[in-house]
Design goal:
Bound molecules: ligand LLP
Structural class: alpha/beta
CATH superfamily of the largest domain: Alanine racemase
Helix content: 25-40%
CATH class of the largest domain: Alpha Beta
Number of domains: 2
Number of strands: 20
Radius of gyration: 23 Å
Length: 431
């Protein structure tokens, strides 16, 4: 198997895995497992690397953190302190953003199949709404005429690491694709006296090749030009969405930020100028890029079972804790935390404690000799890890720790059995 070269915040100290300078085995002993660990430093680096690269080419930039990737309050607060804006896709995410200190003017709501009472909740707060279809605009205008609206355009080019994560293209539910329909939404909003406008696309998640992105941006900006020219609408912001891929496998090519800037940001800049679109903010909406490699999941080995067919390593995290492998067949690299210098000893399936055969974190994985009690580190778990976790099989959810200046800080307590009872009511006949 290709060996993974460890890079920050991961470090190999005499065969033991350290995360932000702290032994992960000690973290597991101190807080128990399953445990999500996030690096404050790495999140800040990811944010600033992206911001600096874009602002160097185009100065009016806004980074909206797509908080579906991870809504931990401490994480939201730290991104806010860096100057991030927030992409929210549900009223609950807006609530989380507000609770962490984001003001409504820094939140963009991009929903689908939105209920009228949800629109009212957002309108009352003054959060900018990214309209997904004509009827959503109509419902909104019955509640309020907002000062700003944005429209989610489906540029009919999509991409992503899995079919479930491609969010543009002819067969996809998101956004508006027919140009006449897009023009009508803007025309109706303008007629209703909406004063400020944005335009938005998000083509998918886990994009590793830039070509589809470039193609989508071209079509998208041509549509923006039509809206501008035919309706005399100037955009305050143009949002290109998120979806920037990260390397999960040791041999994955990392997302090429300089290529993104040279191909996408340059294209944006030149088209905005050529089409005379004014001076809109260039917005991007990354989730994964900001937090994925800033997080790991620690899990303990409960069992090693060898049959005449297969070798299983049973751990205390299943798809209740990290669903990506079961849901998308996603690869997450796994390290045996105290055996980094040992040679691989065999091929194992790393499986969880749930009563489903699909509860597999890794299939056919080469690992060093593993024994019960070993701590495994599942890498790239900062995005879509905890946020997609559940209490399935009545298993309380994991705890979360943030590494801050070399020290661990508990940022979410481990759920207890009592939490399984929250909001349930017992209704028995005769009571
Ligand atoms: N903006 C919108 C409107 C989105 O729907 C998404 C993701 C993003 C931004 C951020 O995408 P990112 O930069 O994180 O790729 N659960 C899947 C990912 C689903 C993402 C859905 N939308 C996974 O674990 O891979």
């Amino acid at each position: 198997m290709v060996k993974r070269k460890l890079c920050e915040p991961l470090e190999n100290r005499k065969g033991n895995l350290y995360f932000d300078g702290f032994s992960v085995v000690e973290l597991a002993q101190k807080y128990d497992t399953p445990l999500y660990v996030l690096s404050e430093k790495r999140v800040r680096e990811n944010y600033n690397r992206l911001y600096d690269a874009i602002v160097d080419k185009y100065k009016d930039v806004r980074i909206y953190y797509a908080c579906k990737a991870n809504t931990n309050l401490t994480l939201l607060k730290l991104l806010q302190s860096e100057g991030a804006y927030l992409d929210a896709v549900s009223p609950g995410e807006v609530f989380m953003g507000l609770s962490s200190g984001f003001t409504p003017d820094r939140i963009l709501f991009t929903g689908i199949s939105v209920r009228p009472d949800e629109l009212k909740f957002l309108a009352d707060l003054g959060v900018t709404i990214n309209i997904d279809c004509q009827s959503e605009l109509e419902h909104l205008l019955k509640i309020v005429v907002p000062s700003t609206i944005s429209v989610r355009v489906n540029p009919e080019v999509g991409d992503g690491h899995h079919d479930h994560c491609i969010t543009a293209g002819p067969n996809v539910k998101f956004g508006i694709c027919d140009e006449e329909d897009i023009l009508k939404v803007y025309a109706d909003a303008k007629k209703a006296r909406v004063e400020h406008f944005g335009i938005h696309m998000h083509i998918g998640s886990g994009i590793s090749k830039i070509d589809s992105y470039v193609q989508a941006v071209k079509r998208f900006l041509d549509i923006a030009k039509r809206v501008h020219d035919e309706l005399d609408i100037t955009f305050d912001f143009i949002d290109l969405g998120g979806g920037f891929g990260v390397s999960y496998r040791p041999d994955d090519e990392p997302f090429d930020l300089s290529e993104f800037v040279s191909k996408v940001v340059s294209l944006f800049k030149s088209k905005v100028k050529a089409y005379k679109l004014g001076k809109p903010f260039l917005c991007v909406e990354p989730g994964r890029y900001l937090v994925c490699d800033a997080g790991i999941l620690l899990t303990t080995v409960n069992m090693v079972k060898v049959t005449s067919h297969r070798k299983f390593v049973g751990v205390d995290s299943g798809f209740n804790t990290l669903i990506r492998p079961a849901m998308y067949g996603s690869y997450h690299h796994i390290l045996v935390a105290n055996k980094l210098n040992l040679k691989d000893s065999g091929i194992f399936d790393v499986v969880g404690p749930l009563c489903e055969s699909g509860d597999v974190l890794a299939k056919d994985r080469e690992l060093p000799p593993v024994v019960e009690g070993d701590v495994l580190a599942v890498l790239n778990a900062g995005a879509y890890g905890f946020s997609m976790s559940s209490q399935y099989n009545s298993r309380p959810r994991a705890a979360e720790v943030m590494m801050r200046q070399g020290k661990p800080v508990l940022i979410r307590e481990r759920e207890q059995f009592q939490d399984l009872l929250t909001s349930q009511r017992v209704a028995l006949q005769g009571e």
